[in-house]
């Protein structure tokens, strides 16, 4: 069952706190998507399958010191059917080429100088 969780987070004017919140929320099990919402983008909207909203709020409190759970609601899954525009037109499928490991050729160049010269 998909859930939509809205959590109010205080960012304290730091840019790094947004990334901390995103990293902490993504690391929680069951999270599928994350978005910022609200008037000042101070709310984080998390959508996922079988989320533990209390654990997520507690995890965010550890990162940014203030997080308030505003709402938890279920999300209805809407499945839309894709319609083909014209039955005679098919999408072009490009063949995939698997590139192998590149081969590098090398040769050993030996110095063929005579060692008889005492100057060199």
UniProtKB/TrEMBL annotation:
Q: Gene3D superfamilies annotated for this entry?
A: 3.30.70.100
**InterPro entries (alphabetical):** HIPP46, HMA_dom
**Residue span(s) of domain HMA:** 2-72
What PANTHER family does the entry give? Answer: OS04G0464100 PROTEIN
Query: What's the name of the protein?
Result: HMA domain-containing protein
């Amino acid at each position: 069952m998909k859930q939509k969780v809205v959590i109010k987070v205080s960012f304290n004017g730091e840019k790094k706190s947004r990334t901390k919140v995103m990293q902490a929320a993504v690391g929680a099990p069951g999270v599928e998507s994350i978005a910022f919402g609200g008037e000042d983008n101070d709310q984080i909207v998390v959508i996922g399958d079988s989320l533990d909203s209390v654990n997520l709020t507690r995890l965010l409190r550890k990162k940014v010191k203030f997080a308030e759970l505003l709402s938890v609601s279920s999300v209805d899954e809407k499945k839309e059917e894709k319609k083909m525009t014209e039955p005679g037109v098919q999408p072009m499928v490009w063949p995939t080429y698997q590139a192998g490991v590149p081969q590098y050729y090398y040769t050993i160049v030996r110095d063929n100088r005579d060692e008889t010269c005492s100057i060199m």
